[in-house]
Write a structure and sequence with these properties.
Elements lengths: L3 H14 L2 E9 L9 H16 L2 H12 L3 E8 L2 H4 L9 H14 L3 E8 L6 H16 L3 E6 L1 E2 L3 E3 H17 L11 E5 L20 E8 L1 H9 L6 H30 L3 E8 L9 H8 L9 H19 L8 E2 L7 H8 L5 H7 L7 E7 L4 H18 L3 E8 L7 E3 L6 E3 L9 H5 L3 E2 L9
Parallel strand pairs: 1-2, 2-3, 3-4, 4-7, 8-9, 9-10, 11-12
Antiparallel strand pairs: 1-8, 5-6, 6-15, 7-12, 13-14
Helix pairs in contact: 1-8, 2-5, 3-9, 5-6, 6-7, 7-14, 8-9, 8-10, 9-11
């Protein structure tokens, strides 16, 4: 039985600390839509997506109204298109991306993820075709998000794919330069990508999932910050206990919304992803949590330790609150979407290298980072390789979402708007890694990958 005190406490978290359900994401399998005729394939996927998701937005809005819990985004993820469209006889997957975009628009969702490929051990012709189609697809669509998984702890790293993705990011930036490279904000490169992630831009519907499923992402950095304000004089044990208890309460809110959404949409409930995902709003920031923990600003000595503490205890609290915690679950550290992280970069406290160190202990990786437009494709590939190596060796998900902004350089600003916010252009190490990236081939999995 939920007590009156608990209800009042939840209401305060919503009203005063910006607690929200960041996204209800419907995952849809497109495996049964396979067809050698790309036009027929497009017809099938449009029909299936719009049939399953036709009530998604309305249900999300109704739940928000009934329970008084903001449900910010309603989204869709689909089977990686490189798999679903593998039998299509075509020389481009751009029309498929445009069909996904049209389906997303007609369903009223803000993003649809799954223009994706899983190439950790090698590339099929379909994988290569999808990666070649990404720049134009990101240019001609508004709601489609793309991801490519280039490595896993069990398979090692596909360096050929990493090289290709550096070039793909550069081309995407070029084609969308009139919008400050916005296409790159919808493109993420993973190591150890998960199949049930509800957050964009990396969401796709894994092949091990049901035909249709509801995954919910809950976010509450403001709630955690507010809770830590009450224990400013406490030691680390008290700090950790506070984060765990707060994460438990946040996850329970997500559990209620997820189960209700699944019931109303008549599809299975998948997972709750408890990820502290910030927004540009003051009071909804991971950087502010660092400050509340005792750091002058993000990037100060101790930041990596603070992030490790935060990430671990968020997961411990979340796991106790739901039997199905999944996705990424932890703390996102995007630069452009967090005003305190932006300020840390502007003050010189936070560098790309420090962010990379922090990704060793966080849930994702180098996220929403604007870099000079003249950064070479090989340098971007080198950054991807570094981040993928962290994920591979540490058995964790890591990702890279870099935005080379054509015509801009270090110190200038780029404005994306909405949840994507704005970002300062960050300095990138200028020493070359071109010969290293040009080697190609595969990096074998680390020795501790053999667990059979």
């Amino acid at each position: 039985m939920i007590s009156r005190v608990e209800i009042q406490e939840t209401n305060r978290m919503i009203a005063e600390a910006k607690l929200d359900v960041r996204t209800i994401t419907m995952g849809i399998s497109l495996m049964d839509c396979a067809d050698p005729d790309v036009e027929k394939f497009n017809e099938k996927i449009y029909r299936k997506i719009t049939n399953y998701a036709k009530n998604l937005v309305q249900v999300g809005d109704d739940i928000a109204k009934q329970f008084g819990i903001p449900v910010v985004n309603k989204r869709i993820s689909v089977t990686p298109i490189a798999i679903a469209a593998a039998s299509c006889q075509t020389d481009s997957y751009v029309s498929i991306a445009e069909t996904l975009d049209r389906a997303a628009k007609d369903c009223g969702v803000n993003f649809i993820g799954g223009f994706s490929a899983l190439v950790q051990k090698g590339c099929t012709p379909s994988d290569i075709l999808l990666m070649k189609s990404i720049p134009e697809a990101m240019n001609t669509t508004e709601r489609v998000c793309s991801s490519v998984n280039v490595g896993t702890s069990r398979n090692g790293l596909n360096m050929d794919a990493i090289k290709m993705m550096g070039e793909t990011i550069k081309e995407t930036a070029k084609l969308t330069q009139d919008r400050d490279g916005i296409g790159c904000a919808k493109l993420v490169v993973f190591c150890n990508a998960v199949e049930d992630n509800p957050f964009m831009a990396g969401a796709f519907h894994g092949v091990g999932e049901a035909d249709c499923v509801i995954n919910v992402g809950v976010s509450g950095p403001g709630v955690v910050k507010r809770a830590l304000e009450e224990v400013r004089e406490g030691d680390f044990e008290m700090l950790c206990e506070t984060v765990k208890k707060t994460a438990f309460k946040i996850t329970r809110v997500g559990q209620i919304v997820a189960q209700e959404a699944a019931r109303r949409l008549k599809v299975p409930f998948g997972i709750i992803d408890l990820s502290l995902a910030p927004t540009p709003a003051v009071g909804d920031s991971i950087g502010e949590i660092f400050q509340e923990m005792g750091l002058e600003c993000a990037g100060a000595p101790g930041t990596t330790a603070a992030l490790a503490i935060l990430n671990d205890n968020v997961k411990k609290g979340g796991v106790m609150a739901s039997s199905y915690v999944g996705g990424l679950s932890g703390a996102f550290i995007p630069v452009s979407e967090d005003h305190a992280m932006i300020e840390a970069v502007e003050r010189g406290a936070l560098s790309l290298e420090k962010l990379e160190a922090m990704t060793c202990v966080c849930s994702v990786g180098l996220d929403m980072i604007a870099i000079p437009g003249d950064t070479s494709a090989s340098t971007i590939s080198g950054i991807i390789a570094d981040e993928a190596a962290i994920g591979m060796v540490n058995h964790k998900t890591t990702a890279v979402r870099l935005i080379p902004v054509v015509g801009k350089t270090v110190g200038e600003q780029v404005e994306f708007g909405g949840l994507l916010g704005h970002a300062p252009i960050m300095k990138v190490n200028s020493f070359s890694c071109e010969k290293f990236i040009r080697r190609g081939g595969r990096v074998p999995a680390p020795i501790h990958s053999f667990k059979n």
